Amino acid sequence: MEKSFGPLQGMKVVELAHIMAGPVCGLMLADLGADVIKVEKIPGGDDSRRFLPPDIDGESAAYMMMNRNKRGVALDLKTENGKKVLRKLLADADVVTENYRHDTMQKLGFGYEDLKKDNPGLIYCAISGFGRTGPYAERGGFDLIAQGMSGLMSFTGEGPGRPPCKVGAPVTDITAGILAALGCVSAYVHKLKTGEGQIVDTSLFEAGIVHTYWQSAIALATGIAPGPMGSAHPLNGPYQAFETKDGWITIGAANQRNWERLLNAMESPEIADDPRFANNSERMANLKELENVLTPIFKTRTKDDWLERLEKAGVPAGPVMDVCEMFEDPHAQARDMIPTVDHSKLGPVRTLGLPIKLSETPGEVATAAPLFGQHTEEVLAEYGFGEDEIAAFADEGAVATSS
Fold first, then answer.
1. Which residue of 31, 55, 303, 372 has the fewest CB atoms within a 10 Å radius of its CB?
2. What is the per-residue pLDDT across 189-198, written as a single tens digit (0 to 9) for each?
3. How far apart, in whole angstroms, are the C-alpha atoms of residue 43 and residue 305?
4. DSSP per-residue string spanning 176-226
5. For the segment 329-386, what is each residue's pLDDT rounded down to a tens digit?
6. Sheet holding 123-128: strands in order across?
7. Is the CB of residue 303 less than 8 Å from the CB of residue 244?
């Protein structure tokens, strides 16, 4: 079923991925117009269906977040007819995505070398903990492990001497999915030019490493690994959160002009004469002293007062909002980042929007996540399976439907 929106109209994607990294890749492609057919295992489906609570009338909120805009098919790949259906889906697919351990697909008979015999243009996207090569290739991987091994946890946290701290969001899962989507689109461009498919290989480990650009720049230049600094920046200051009379705000006075604007907004020109804060190099060398000087001043006014003053002065600043506050923020809504979609069971549900805006071929969050097996009959019919054959597959447990 070709979608009617987005630059990836006509791209056929079979998603064999589960939980997060792979589904992020799929939702990015789906939001940009690809027909993403999510194949879930029998029994149970994607493990995120059991990430409960929270749920909405029995439907996992986590599953619904990661799987909007996709069509859902349920197959038992331990059965010959389940494998038969999957082979049919893959025979003309542009992309297949998977995030299993490195040899799982090969054992099932769906490794890249097997699949490209029937479909030489297939793009095989493998997302794993550590990638398909190297000494850790056979290890399983999770976001927490990747954050620790990539260096992220060594500089995330309140400060020196505190326990290791992960980033609150599963950033390596999410980033690996986005990198995989970029890889798939890049490989698709090559396929459109040449007809050739290829393997797209990325990992949570590498997704964590790319978040260390600044810290790696420092370590490569100095030989010293930066440690945690709370909300502060390792290269510029003040660039961090400060507590006000009634909450927290963030300040981006990360160059000399903004530093001067900040002092004007704070009505504290005398600080400019302090040699410890004369330029960025001195401010970074005396960052703790700078915090001690600025914090009492920020605590004299409310966050709204400060944000108004800082905006007038031209200093980048913003409130520290929780997620529910972000949902109601007028800018998030104006950018269509909290859209509502119609769920076949629940009716209108809110989700997150597409963060890529295209002027001529915009993407769209058009449909909610599928129920387990919701589109099995529809998809199989499109691929030439008759009603009786689909019913027989369902009776033997090779496929599952929502009806």
1. 55
2. 999 999 999 9
3. 56
4. HHHHHHHHHHHHHHHHHHH---EEEEEEHHHHHHGGGHHHHHHHHHHS---
5. 999 999 999 999 999 999 999 999 999 999 999 999 999 999 999 999 999 999 999 9
6. 198-203, 123-128, 95-98, 12-15, 35-41, 71-75, 399-400
7. yes
Helix residue ranges per DSSP H, 142-170: 143-150
Candidates 303, 323, 298, 313; CA nearest to 264 is 313
Tokens coding 219: 């370590």
Structural domains counted in the chain:
2
Mark the ranges of the chain whose per-residue pLDDT is less than 50: none
Active site residues: 173
Q: Say if residue 302 is in the same domain as residue 333.
A: no
Please tell me whether the peptide bond between 53 and the residue prior to it is cis, using omega within 30 degrees of 0.
Answer: yes
- Residue 203 sits in the same domain as residue 127: yes
At residue 47, the 3 state secondary structure works out as helix
Tokens of 218: 């420092």
CA quadruple 349, 350, 356, 357: dihedral, nearest 10 = 90
**How far apart are the C-alpha atoms of 241 and 238, rounded to whole Å?**
9
Written as six digits, the tokens of 319 are: 């409130």
Q: Model-level pTM?
A: 0.94
Whether 175 maps to a domain, the answer reads yes
Question: Where do we find the tokens 């082979």?
Answer: 87
Q: Give domain status of residue 134, yes or no.
A: yes
Structural domain contains residue 341:
yes
Is the same domain home to 289 and 379? no
Q: Is the same domain home to 276 and 127?
A: no
Q: Is residue 124 part of a domain?
A: yes
Q: Provide the 3-class DSSP secondary structure of residue 141.
A: coil
Max CA separation in the chain (angstroms) = 85
What range does the domain containing 135 cover? 12-211+329-400
Q: If residue 293 lies in a helix (H) or strand (E), which one and from where to where?
A: helix 287-298
Q: For residue 270, which of 240, 294, 295 has the smallest C-alpha distance?
A: 294
Residues 268 and 199 placed together within one structural domain of the fold: no
Structure tokens, 147: 């954050």
Identify residue 39 by its one-letter amino acid code.
V
CATH assignment at residue 271? 3.30.1540.10
Residues 93 and 128 reside in one and the same domain: yes
CA distance 321 to 328: 10
Q: In 3-state terms, what secondary structure has residue 174?
A: helix
The CA-based angle 293-298-301, given to 5 degrees, is 145
